[in-house]
């Protein structure tokens, strides 16, 4: 991993300049390799979407899924976004990759619907570079038309930092998206340059409480207070709330007590391949260890 190599390089420090240099070379090679592999990945159809369900806490039903990108690299196998999204963003490749995600997610949601699965919200993550594209709104509109998915079934996840870079521009883009009819949610809520200002200024529908707060439910009263406050704030503003990274019953119980609308996390299901996701939508038992966390995946874990 690049960060690990960098860390080791730093640790090596001055006393061991040759070691440092070797590590730097290795890091540079790794980076070059990744860039060129990434450039081929779309054409070679190496990207796949996994889907993680969000469960509505009142009905117990799946209200939506989040599409999460995976790179099926021929050598190291499945690569997770943390390892390549940053690089893709830096070299601008995130724009065509994001366009692929949008198309694929809309097509999949429409296909599930046509196949008789219950209707759901399909959420996709948007990167800063994508958000800044002039044709963002028209490309989303086009993807919806091509797939036949209703705009109200597409949810766009944006981060706080993405909105705060250029507030005027962000407001204009978000208003246009809203006019199109798509839903807007704030991802990793509470971890960015949190400004409550934008909740008033922007047409947001939903907040996703960051995993770092959810993780500490049961051990840190401050995190619990923050989670509770986010839920009340969201509800007073007419927004819905989903908690990310729910792994334990204790967290679920606390969230339910606070009136949280839905939850997403390994407790309910890991991200799943499309076939496994479809089985779950149909209420069928998982066919094999389909999820990324094997035994943790699949309904019936509740
Ligand atoms: P995110 O949007 O906040 O997605 C949630 C992440 O938490 C996912 O990681 C998911 O697999 C993980 N997760 C879900 N439940 C649990 C849990 O109970 N415990 C723990 N520890 N983790 C859980 P993933 O798939 O590795 O994605 C990481 C980030 O990469 C995402 O964070 C998102 O910011 C970005 N990303 C993923 N797909 C895309 C994409 O298509 N486009 C863009 N621009 N970014 C993406
Ligand atoms: Mg997300
Ligand atoms: Mg998130
Ligand atoms: Mg996150």
From TrEMBL:
Residues 31-285 form the EAL domain. Coiled coil: none annotated. This is EAL domain-containing protein.
């Amino acid at each position: 991993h690049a960060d690990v190599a960098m860390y080791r390089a730093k640790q090596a420090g001055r006393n061991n300049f040759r070691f440092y240099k070797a590590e730097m070379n290795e890091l540079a090679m790794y980076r070059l390799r990744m860039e060129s592999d990434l450039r081929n990945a779309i054409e070679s159809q190496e990207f796949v979407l996994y889907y993680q369900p969000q469960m509505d806490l009142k009905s117990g039903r799946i209200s939506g899924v989040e599409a999460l990108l995976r790179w099926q690299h021929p050598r190291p196998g499945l690569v997770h976004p943390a390892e390549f999204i940053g690089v893709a963003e830096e070299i601008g490749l995130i724009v065509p990759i994001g366009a692929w995600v949008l198309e694929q997610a809309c097509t999949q949601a429409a296909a599930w619907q046509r196949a008789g699965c219950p209707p759901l919200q399909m959420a996709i993550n948007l990167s800063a570079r994508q958000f800044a594209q002039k044709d963002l709104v028209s490309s989303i509109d086009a993807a919806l038309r091509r797939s036949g998915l209703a705009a109200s079934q597409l949810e766009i996840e944006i981060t706080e930092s993405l909105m705060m870079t250029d507030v005027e521009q962000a407001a204009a883009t978000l208003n246009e998206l809203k006019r199109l009819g798509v839903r807007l949610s704030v991802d990793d809520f509470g971890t960015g340059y949190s400004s409550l200002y934008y909740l008033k200024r922007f047409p947001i529908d939903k907040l996703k409480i960051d995993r770092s707060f959810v993780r500490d439910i049961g051990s840190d009263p401050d995190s619990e207070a923050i989670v509770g406050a986010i839920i009340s704030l969201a509800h007073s503003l007419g927004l819905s709330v989903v908690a990310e990274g729910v792994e334990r019953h204790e967290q679920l119980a606390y969230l339910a007590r606070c009136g949280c609308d839905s939850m997403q996390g390994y407790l309910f299901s890991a991200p799943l391949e499309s076939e496994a996701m479809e089985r779950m939508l149909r209420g069928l038992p998982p066919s094999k260890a389909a999820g990324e966390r094997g035994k943790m995946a699949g309904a019936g874990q509740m």
